[in-house]
Amino acid sequence: MTKRVAIICGGRSSEHEISCISAGGVLAAIDRSKFEPILIGISKSGKWFLLDEKTPLSINDGVLPTIAETGTSVTLDAAGFHSEGKNLNIDIVFPLLHGPYGEDGTIQGLLEMADISYVGSGVLASAVAMDKSFAKPIFAAHGIKVAAGFVVRASEWAKDKASIQKQADLLGYPVFVKPARGGSSRGTTKVKSAAEFVAAIEEAHRFDPKAMVEQEIRGKEIECAVLEIDGVAKASLVGQIKIDPKYDFYNFEAKYLDSATTIELPASIDQKISDQIRAKAVEAFISLGCSGLARVDFFLTDNNEVIINELNTMPGFTATSVFPKMWAATGVGYTDVITHLLNAALTRNNGVLGN
Ligand SMILES: Nc1ncnc2c1ncn2[C@@H]1O[C@H](COP(=O)(O)OP(=O)(O)O)[C@@H](O)[C@H]1O
Ligand SMILES: [Mg+2]
């Protein structure tokens, strides 16, 4: 019997469009001999709709896809998914949502209450990974190095800009200023001098009342994909993000709107270092209590120091996204990655008493 899989995309976060593209990828690749996909879109204002599979979910003439507020509505509550008075009888949910209201434990909590299996990390791991200011001290406690930095809440900023600016001066420029719960580099600025600091904090606060200031780490950006295969967290080959030097850092444009960014797979780094990064990626995954999948992003400095940048519990998931590409290079194709994730979901070790 095929399992009915709800693929949920869109959502209220700034990564709405990227989520739609990921869903398009999964719909095209899911093994239909095992799974029957049902597409559910969440509009930017948070309304849920049952969508036709043919809903356009790719970039068209440079225009990113979004979920329109038309069509049959869907509800999810403790009694499960319903549409037009009927239970949709969903066996597994693939919450392909990035950022707040999706990747952060909120939908995971709703699914726990409804007692429905879902792909990926559970409530706590999702919530902790989403907020970089909480994830970083946990990584550090597990012996995984992080960049020096501090948090700037909008309320503190309103009270005392001068002393916060002084703290940034002490870190030394450049610093990176970013939303604590951001993604896709939105609201992130490389601040090259004290004069640019105020504008950068205000920009980060447009996305999140909690901003982070971090010392710049100079080095390669190395990513590793962790996938739970038959109950064991495995690390992929590591890849190096190669950004066109016209970009200051791996910003939104470099990530999505330009073909100038590539990933070198495997990264041409020393085997020993790459093994070390793979081991740290699995450690990071376990340290936050993750399940299913995560993309773990590191910096590798010129003197071979490995510093973790962040862990994404629902990374970009189109066929050409980094996560599936890293697994393809490791010998597990996109369709099989999806099958592993849906099988892992059925074990429910992401549940409230799981990992
Ligand atoms: N401390 C830092 N040092 C150097 N570069 C950084 C630092 N923090 C962020 N960046 C740059 O900004 C990008 C986005 O920051 P990141 O923390 O990964 O947020 P996001 O969740 O938006 O991807 C990184 O890929 C990197 O290019
Ligand atoms: Mg990142």
From TrEMBL:
Key words, A-Z? ATP-binding, Cell shape, Cell wall biogenesis/degradation, Ligase, Magnesium, Manganese, Metal-binding, Nucleotide-binding, Peptidoglycan synthesis
Swiss-Prot/TrEMBL GO biological process terms = cell wall organization; peptidoglycan biosynthetic process; regulation of cell shape
One Pfam family of this chain: Dala_Dala_lig_C
Q: Which GO terms describe its cellular component?
A: cytosol
Record SUPFAM superfamilies: Glutathione synthetase ATP-binding domain-like (SSF56059), PreATP-grasp domain (SSF52440)
Q: Which residues form the ATP-grasp domain?
A: 136-343
- PROSITE patterns registered for this protein in UniProt: ATP_GRASP, DALA_DALA_LIGASE_1, DALA_DALA_LIGASE_2
Q: Name one GO molecular function term.
A: D-alanine-D-alanine ligase activity
- The answer on whether this UniProt entry bears the keyword Nucleotide-binding reads yes
Cofactors, names only: Mn(2+); Mg(2+)
As for family, the record states: Belongs to the D-alanine--D-alanine ligase family.
Q: What is this protein called?
A: Unannotated protein
Q: Which organism is it from?
A: freshwater metagenome
